[in-house]
Design goal:
By secondary structure, the chain is of the alpha/beta class. It has helices at about 35-55, 95-100, 110-120, 180-185, 185-200, 205-210, 220-225, 230-255, 270-285, 305-315, and strands at about 1-5, 10-15, 25-30, 65-70, 75, 80, 105-110, 130-135, 140-145, 150, 260-265, 295-300. Bound molecules: adenosine-5'-diphosphate (ADP). Adenosine-5'-diphosphate binds next to helix 5 and helix 7.
Length: about 325
């Protein structure tokens, strides 16, 4: 069997796959970041043992354990370094811990890379030789596939598309740099940007849509309000679309993949196709030279499951 683990800021999902890709079972528990990494790792070990017992398996039956974790990670050593999404996890040698516990091969990579593999084999990139996956969630990340293989780069940062500076006079990013793509399009940054606009502007539609909650809203509320005609919510998305299109056009000139696949929490919104993806494609048509931008930009097909399916692929490809 192949075991897959999707570590997220909110929950940790573990799936048991047969070697030929049948997903037999899934266990989930909440990450409870404040309680630190030790509790979560003990729970991962406990759940792995539970899965084995349930199907009368032993550690020797595990072909590999494969993990998608919030970056940055060192995929070679299997250490989770210092993810902004898991502030209590610092330099966690998860590969080594699980290898010693279960005496099997353990692969670990950042969740965007793993999601790219999931979409390549089971999702929107099924027939592609090359693709770039971009996740727009709490952070922004990505994965580059070339010749149906993950391209990690010399130093493991290939595909970190959330963190190139797209506007040197932009805001400071959670990574410490200035004007990264992430600062214009991630869920929390959309909220920040609209909050800033609301300080100096009135928006009756937004206030009506949000009611009393207008102080405390999420990226989902912005898409909802934009769909109902809120001027400031639409302006916020327009800026995001502009920078997302700029980002995609730059990546296209460097990688020129067969497809761009957009995933992550924000893109899972039912209105994301209309409010984010289509306008981005239109913008690309305006800003790319020679009108050669014919690369499809599509929504991820596996939704929240891109990473967990990617863990299976990671197990088969490493
Ligand atoms: P994580 O970043 O932990 O992987 P997600 O991929 O769910 O988690 O991304 C969380 C971000 O996506 C948050 O900023 C959240 O507000 C936003 N988000 C989640 N669901 C939606 C939705 N349906 N519509 C718009 N934004 C959403």
């Amino acid at each position: 069997v192949i075991i897959g683990i999707d570590i997220g800021g909110t929950k940790i999902q573990q799936a048991l796959f047969t070697e030929n890709g049948k997903r037999i079972d899934t266990l989930v528990f909440s990450t409870q970041v404040r309680q630190g990494s030790e509790r979560a790792i003990n729970k991962i070990i406990e759940n792995t043992s539970l899965l084995l017992e349930k199907y009368k398996l032993k550690p020797i039956n595990i072909a590999s354990i494969n993990i998608g974790a919030p970056g940055p990670v060192n995929s070679r050593t299997g250490v989770i370094l210092q993810p902004p999404n898991l502030p209590t996890w610092r330099n966690v040698p998860l590969k080594k811990i699980l290898e010693e516990k279960f005496n099997c091969k353990v692969n670990l990579d950042n969740d965007a890379n793993v999601a790219a593999l999931g979409e390549l084999h089971f999702g929107a990139g099924k027939n592609c030789h090359s693709l770039v996956y971009i996740t727009i969630s709490t952070g922004v990340g990505g994965g580059i596939i070339i010749n149906r293989k993950l391209y990690r780069g010399w130093n493991n940062v290939a595909g970190e598309v959330g963190h190139f500076t797209i506007d040197p006079s932009g805001p400071r990013c959670s990574c410490g740099q200035i004007g990264c793509l992430e600062t214009f399009i991630s869920g929390p940054n959309l909220v920040k940007s609209l909050k800033e606009k609301l300080k100096y502007n009135e928006d009756e539609v937004f206030e009506k849509v949000m009611g009393k909650k207008s102080e405390d809203f999420s990226a989902k509320d912005i898409l909802d309000a934009a769909g109902r005609g809120s001027r400031l919510a639409n302006e916020t998305l327009e800026v995001a679309v502009k920078y997302l299109a700029l980002g995609i056009s730059i990546i296209n000139y460097i990688v020129n993949p067969e497809k761009f696949i957009l995933g992550g929490g924000v893109i899972q919104n039912e209105k994301a196709e209309k409010l984010l993806i289509q306008p981005t494609v239109e913008k690309l048509g305006e800003i790319c030279h020679f009108k050669t931008f014919s690369t499809p930009v599509v929504k991820a097909r596996l939704g929240k499951d891109s990473v967990i399916w990617g863990t299976y692929v990671l197990g088969k490809s490493e």
